[in-house]
Design goal:
Blueprint lengths: L5 E2 L10 H13 L9 H21 L6 E4 L2 H15 L4 E4 L5 H12 L4 E4 L10 H10 L3 E4 L13 H10 L3 E5 L18 E5 L10 E5 L14 H4 L7 H16 L1 H22 L4 E2 L13 E5 L9 H7 L2 E2 L15 H6 L7 E5 L6 H15 L1
Parallel strand pairs: 1-11, 3-4, 3-5, 5-6, 6-7
Antiparallel strand pairs: 2-8, 7-8, 9-10, 10-12
Length: 379
C-alpha cells in the first residue's frame, strides 16, 4: 500500500490540470507542424499560437501585440532587464534585495560589467518597499530601470504595483515587474497599470513547465534577447512550443473563469492552517504579512518554528513523513546557502523556516495530516 503524501509546495510548481493534460496529449497527436511553415499543417499550428495570444491578451485587457511567448518567467525577466537597459542606454537600475534571483543576478551582472549603477530600495520588516525611498532614488538619477516583484515567492508580501508604476511614469522610468507568483491568481487590467514589462510562467497556475510569456507595453520598443529565426514577430527566436502555449492559455482561462471561487477556497485552507499551527504547536511565528489575506499571497504561508536540533533536517524529515514543502525559496532548498530573502527580513534568526503553499487541489485533510507530522517532529 502506498503511503499518504501531501504536496504543499505550489509556489515552486503546481500540478498540471487534468483537462490540460488531455488537451495537450490530443494536440501532440494531431498538431505537430512548425508554426512558421506556410503549408496547411503549419498554418494550423500557427492558428493555435495566435489563438492563445488573443485569449491571454483579452484576459489582461491588452492587445495581442503586447504578448510574446517565452520558455518561462526567468527568460522573460532576463529579456526585459538586459534588452531594455541595453537598447535604451540605461545607466541606473533599482530593485529590492529580496527580488528573485532571475532579477537580481542579471542586474548584478550588468553592474559588474560597468554598464549600470544598481541601487536597492529600502524595505521594511515585512518586505514592503519604501515608496519614499524609491521616489528619492528616481529623482536622484537620470532615466532609470526599475524592477520590483509583484509578490515575493518566499514570504508572500505583495507590492503596490499601481503606485510604483505611476511613480515610475512620473519620473520617465522603465518599470518591470516579475508577476510569476500573481499571474492567474490575481486580476490584471493593463489599461490601468503603468507597467512596461511583466513576466509569467504557466507552471505556477496548473499549466505545463517550459512555457511562459513576457508582456511588453506598446509604449516601449526593445530588440530580441534570442536571435535566429523570426518567430514571435521577430522578438523571440526559436520554434514555438505550441503544446505548451496552448496549455498556458487554457490554464489562464480556467484560472480566471473560477478566480473568485478558487481564491476563497484557498484562503480558507490558509486560514485553517494558520489556526491549526497557532493552536496545536508552540511558538509558531509568521514571516512578512503572511497572515494578512489582503496584502499577501493567499497561496503562501511562510512560518518559522522554535530553534531545534533538527532544524537543518526539518524539510528532509517532513519529506520522509510524506509532506512536501519548502524552506523559504524552493530554489535554494537542499543547498548550502540560506535564503537571501530571509537574511534580509530576519538576519539574526536561527529559527527554522518553512514555506507551505497551496492550490485548489489541496484539502483540509492535507492540512490535518501536515499538522500531525509537525507535532511528531516537535514533540
Amino acid at each position: 500500500m502506498r503511503k499518504k503524501r501531501v504536496f504543499l509546495d505550489n509556489a515552486a510548481t503546481t500540478p498540471i490540470a487534468p483537462e490540460i493534460i488531455k488537451m495537450m496529449s490530443q494536440m501532440m497527436r494531431t498538431n505537430f507542424a512548425n508554426p512558421s511553415s506556410v503549408h496547411s499543417y503549419g498554418r494550423e499550428s500557427k492558428i493555435i499560437v495566435e489563438s492563445a495570444r488573443k485569449k491571454i491578451s483579452k484576459l489582461l485587457n491588452t492587445s495581442p501585440g503586447s504578448i510574446f511567448f517565452t520558455s518561462g518567467g526567468t527568460e522573460a525577466d532576463n529579456m526585459a532587464i538586459k534588452c531594455a537597459i541595453h537598447d535604451h542606454k540605461i545607466t541606473h537600475a533599482i530593485t529590492s534585495r529580496i527580488s528573485h534571483h532571475a532579477v537580481l543576478f542579471p542586474l548584478e551582472d550588468l553592474q559588474k560589467e560597468g554598464l549600470i549603477k544598481l541601487s536597492y530600495v529600502d524595505i521594511d520588516k515585512n518586505g514592503v518597499i519604501s515608496i519614499t525611498h524609491l521616489k528619492e532614488l528616481l529623482e536622484s538619477y537620470p532615466r532609470t530601470f526599475v524592477s520590483i516583484m509583484h509578490a515575493n515567492n518566499e514570504i508572500g508580501t505583495i507590492q503596490d504595483i499601481k503606485k510604483i508604476g505611476d511613480l515610475c511614469k512620473e519620473n520617465n522610468a522603465i518599470f518591470h515587474s516579475d508577476t510569476v507568483q500573481t499571474m492567474a491568481h490575481f486580476p490584471f487590467d493593463m489599461q490601468k497599470l503603468n507597467i512596461d514589462f511583466m513576466a509569467a510562467s504557466a507552471h505556477k497556475f496548473h499549466g505545463p513547465k517550459g512555457v511562459g510569456f513576457i508582456y511588453i507595453s506598446e509604449d516601449i520598443q526593445i530588440n530580441p534577447l534570442l536571435r535566429g529565426g523570426g518567430q514571435e514577430r521577430n522578438m523571440r527566436a526559436g520554434t514555438e512550443n505550441i503544446y505548451g502555449i496552448a496549455g498556458l492559455a487554457m490554464a489562464m482561462e480556467m484560472a480566471y473563469k473560477n478566480l473568485e471561487e478558487e481564491t476563497n477556497y484557498i484562503k480558507d485552507l490558509k486560514t485553517y492552517m494558520i489556526e491549526k499551527l497557532q493552536n496545536e504547536l508552540e511558538d509558531v511565528q509568521f514571516y512578512g504579512k503572511c497572515t494578512d489575506m489582503d496584502n499577501s499571497l493567499y497561496t503562501v504561508l511562510s512560518c518559522h518554528f522554535p530553534e531545534t536540533d533538527i532544524a537543518e533536517m526539518l524539510l528532509f524529515n517532513l519529506d520522509i513523513l510524506g509532506v512536501a514543502c519548502s524552506g523559504g525559496s524552493a530554489c535554494a532548498s537542499g543547498g548550502s546557502k540560506g535564503s537571501h530573502v530571509l537574511t534580509e527580513i530576519v538576519p539574526e534568526s536561527k529559527r527554522p523556516g518553512i514555506r507551505f503553499s497551496f492550490s485548489k487541489y489541496n484539502t483540509k485533510e492535507d492540512i490535518d495530516f501536515t499538522i500531525d507530522k509537525l507535532k511528531e517532529l516537535f514533540s
